[in-house]
Amino acid sequence: MYRQIxxxxxxxxxxxxxxxxxxxxxxxxxFYVFNYRDYPSLIRGGHNFNVLAISDEPIMSHEFEGHDIxxxxxxxxxxxxAAEMKxxxxxxxxxxxxxxxxxxxxTDAIIKELNVPRIMENTxxxxxxxxxxxxxxxxxxxxxxxxxxxxxxAVKAARKGYDAVDAGHAIDEHPxxxxxxxxxxxxxxxxxxxxxxxxxYIAYPMTxxxxxxxxxxxxxxxxxxQAIQLENEIAVANAALGASYxxxxxxxxxxxxxxxxMGEAMSMQGMSEVPLVAYLAMRNAPSTGIPxxxxxxxxxxxxxxxxxxxxxxxxAPGDPREAFERTIEAFYLAYKYRVLSIIVxxxxxxxxxxxxxxxxxxxNPSRNIIDVVPSDYKSYEITExxxxxxxxxxxxxxxVRATSYEHDEYGYTREEGEWAIKMNxxxxxxxxxxxxxxxxxxxxxxxxxxxxxxxxxxxxxxxxMDAIKRLKGWKFVQVSYVEPFPVDQFKDxxxxxxxxxxxxNDVTGLLGQIIAEKTGIMIDERVLxxxxxxxxxxxxxxxx
Length: 544
What we know:
Elements: E1 2-11, H1 15-28, E2 32-38, E3 45-55, E4 67-72, H2 75-81, E5 85-94, E6 102-105, H3 107-114, H4 121-132, H5 137-147, H6 152-163, E7 181-184, H7 185-195, E8 200-203, H8 210-223, E9 226-229, H9 233-245, E10 250-254, H10 256-261, H11 263-272, E11 276-282, H12 299-304, E12 312-315, H13 320-337, E13 340-346, H14 347-351, E14 353-356, H15 417-439, E15 444-448, E16 452-456, H16 461-468, E17 474-479, E18 481-483, H17 487-494, E19 499-504, H18 510-519, E20 525-528, H19 537-543
Parallel strand pairs: 1-4, 4-5, 5-6, 8-9, 8-10, 10-11, 11-13, 12-13, 16-17, 16-19, 19-20
Antiparallel strand pairs: 1-3, 2-3, 7-14, 12-18, 15-17
Helix pairs in contact: 1-4, 1-5, 3-6, 4-6, 5-6, 7-8, 7-13, 9-11, 16-19
């Protein structure tokens, strides 16, 4: 069973919230739901829409056509999307909207009767669509109460919309009701940070990283940490290094333009070895690009951020389950090895909502601060693993140094060549041990069977997973850790491939370039999308 609903209107008409409520109600009824959000960079006006893909089996993507229902809050929605509808589809709309195949709802009369705000028109219409599919009102009512904080006026408006229409195409395939998560990539990253023991999240707002800041700010008193907005991204990165140096579990977040500004501080992390976790939510670029749309063009910037050479971790989750689990791994690796861990996401993963059955983190992060500080403490002690024992200022009556200059084991500035060699060797000695740990964290995942292989990373996972259900003889190799690159695991995953196709949401195939550099494997066949829209199963199948 598969149904697809599009909800469209202007910014300010509550399109995203209506889709979230409707999607969560379907999840409550036992269905799997994927919710895609599309909007321009406007506070009011423009054209916003969400697409809800609903199935009785796991689903991780949507299509831009094949809608069973269009809920249109204005004429523009009908004009833009009517041609994308199935032959037997219908449009739910207020009386004022002009459309064929329309089920009209007198929202004006309901709003006047109940004396409720105009924005509740969206609630009236989703309730009518809910009735059309033969769904029980109780599930929708409970969801509205949860999402709108017990708003009784909204419940009454929904009831009126529900009663205004008859059941049309009832969904007969009703799956078992089972508790599941309906969660976005942003929420999953935020919850992963909280589960890691977060003390401090510092950011400056930049789409599409901002939802993590908002979500963490809303939960900070409940879970006893702080979320702080500073004046710019340069301040964010440097303040975070200071906080981590003092012992706090610290994370920062931004998008591509802000991450570029953080480059100098990232390089300082490499020298100072103060652990830090950074969340990079990519969007269409270069420069301002199309700021509320998606793209994967920042991958190599993440791998190479900052001047000079220093070890780092770059992890790229593909769905909210992985976003939660990989965020925990990023904290674990950053604080165990005193490195920079970068979690790479994008607008599509960050702002889409998925149905997830469960979360299963593999590691448990720690600050890794030593209990007893020796009197002869060396802030940069040369060890077999390259990881120096970590202390924090004030822990004992000895200096704990952090420096941006090359230095000796005590942290004193040294300019002799021998110390440059010793400290570079020490820092890069960590890579071997990090790679061994990462190998146990499933850095490369294989889905499906066949001698034809799709290779990809990040948010493309959802569309690829749904595409290979319809493709015979194809499997999907997902690379989750990009740095240190899991060379052996990747080679093993593609060793029997007769055909390899690279699938990415960028112009030049950035992961393919990294694979060529690290493994010598050249992937010549590529499906690349760079119109600022996400990949869909139909797009991938057609291009293959």
